[in-house]
Amino acid sequence: MDRVVIVGAGPVGTASAILLAQRGVPCLLLDRYAEPYPLPRAVHVDDEVVRILQELGVADEFLRVSRPGLGLRLLDGRHRVMAEFRRDTATGPHGYPQANMFDQPDLERVLRARLATLDGVEFIGGAEVVGVSAGSSAGSSAGSSADVTYRLLRTGAEHTVPAAAVLGCDGANSTVRGLIGATLEDLRFEERWLVVDGVCDRDLGAWGGVHQVCDPRRAATFMQMGSLRYRWEFRLHPGESIVDVRPLVGPWLGDAAVRIVRRAEYTFRARVADHWRSGRVFLLGDAAHQTPPFIGQGLGAGLRDAYNLAWKLASGDERLLDSYERERKPHARAQIRLAIVAGWAMTGGQDRAAAVRRVVLGAIWRVPGLKGLALRSTSPPLDHVGRGRRAGRLAPQPMVVWEGREVRLDEALGPGWATLFGERPPAPRRVRGRPIRVTPELDPSGALRRWMRGRTIVLRPDRVVHAAH
User: Which of 15, 76, 320, 342 has the most CB atoms at less than 10 Å from its CB?
Assistant: First the structure.
């Protein structure tokens, strides 16, 4: 059996390898570097994404290196609070805090440690991919394959290996994307920002969520990632380059001292690849889509890609592979557009627009119902999934009692398809995968039964509703 070749060993590529290996699919993981990138980049994932980390077997380890985020505060140029959007720091609908702040190198160490425990995965660092053949087109036999050619940077030797599939998880400047001729559609957002990461000598005593400064003269973001680790982001003016960052971070420090561990200029863009598949080659993560950071969904979108594609590859059903781009692309585009709107609302405009924005934000905060909408953290449903109004939505994950133990729902569901039903057993034709009768004994809190509303629910391996009868 040919291996799946994964190009790029960042969080999305490593997660893809873990998901496939757990399902018995052999993998070859290639990266230009032998060790994870040592500096912070992504800093936030929501409870839906921690649920994916649970599937990877690393949720408990992740919780030990992350901290719950309290939500979002919108500040004016003088750092006065205009609005506050709180998140549940205990348990959200998916069994974890709704916002989770972390240092990406910590997450990558957790993922690499998990990968090392699995059979069927080979990792080669210091390998540059120089060629990919797409193999047979969609709908062909499961035995079709692609070829990947990589060069060992240390020796210059080139190797070509067959691949059951190739996953391009190699970032915004993806080599794989270029090799399959995919281009990026510009969704018309581009801003230059300065990102500063620092370690302070004491806790700053800041509110434990994300602070967004809605000042058109200098839009900024501030957040705490770890016990003494902080991040600042400042929008740059056209042609501006800042050498000394201390005057910018100073207002947040008081009398604390800070050691700057990274400062980097980024251009935040909104782009989506025109196609995510060519034959046996697929694009995931930043290779397929890039988003501004204003709703904290960049890494989460890539991990969703990995979860969506891995179980379909492992199933051996070629028809399922055609659904990967059809489901994930509209979802990613919707979240990118939401990030663009959020970015404009929080940072865009000139002085007059900023004044109007403050009035509007204050009004929104006072209107019943709109506050709840602003606090909602669930992602949009997937398109083109199954039957019924609930199809495409992610099922919640309450605690249940399974085989005498209190566990999160996914542990009871198992790794494959599952069918949830109530007192009346469904017709056999409506059962797929593991049948689970949801009784008061299994669901003592009643949360699962309230969500089901007496229906029979068919869940895919990624916990997305396929059908509700």
Answer: 15
Helix (H, G, I), strand (E, B) or coil at 165: strand
Q: Are 293 and 170 contained in the same domain?
A: yes
DSSP 347: H
> From edge to edge, which strands make up the β-sheet containing 165-168?
121-124, 27-30, 4-7, 165-168, 281-283, 277-278
- Give the position of tokens 């873990």: 18
Domain that holds residue 433: 399-468
- In a domain, residue 233? The reply is no
CA dist 337 and 330 (Å) reads 10
Same domain? For 418 and 285 the reply is: no
Residues of the chain with pLDDT under 50: 138-143, 349-352, 363-376
Q: In the prediction, which pLDDT does 358 show? A: 52
**Would you state the pLDDT for residue 361?**
54
Total domains present in the chain: 2
Is the domain of 310 the same as that of 433?
no
Residue 309: C-alpha distances to residues 187, 246, 312, 400, 416 (Å) = 24, 44, 5, 27, 14
User: Residue 317: left if φ>0, alpha if ψ -120 to 50, beta else—which one?
Assistant: beta
pTM metric for this prediction? 0.92
Neighbours of 377 (CB within 10 A): 18
Q: Is 155 exposed, middle or buried (0-12, 13-18, 19+ CB in 10 A)?
A: exposed
249-252 long-range contacts, CB within 8 A, separation 24+? 249/196, 249/198, 251/79, 252/204, 252/206, 252/222
Asked if 263 contacts 246 with a C-beta cutoff of 8 angstroms, the reply is no
> Residue 27 in 3-state DSSP?
strand
Residues 432 and 284 in one domain: no
222 sits in which H/E element: strand 220-224
* β-sheet bridge partners, residue 410: none
Letter for the amino acid at 207? W
What is the per-residue pLDDT across 157-195, written as a single tens digit (0 to 9) for each? 999 999 999 999 999 999 999 999 999 999 999 999 999
Question: Cβ distance 99 to 69 under 8 Å?
Answer: yes
**Type of residue found at 387:** R
Q: Per the domain annotation, does 434 fall within a domain?
A: yes
309 and 429 in a single domain? The answer is: no
Question: 151 and 57 in one domain?
Answer: yes
Whether residue 272 contacts residue 186, with contact meaning beta carbons closer than 8 Å, is answered with: no
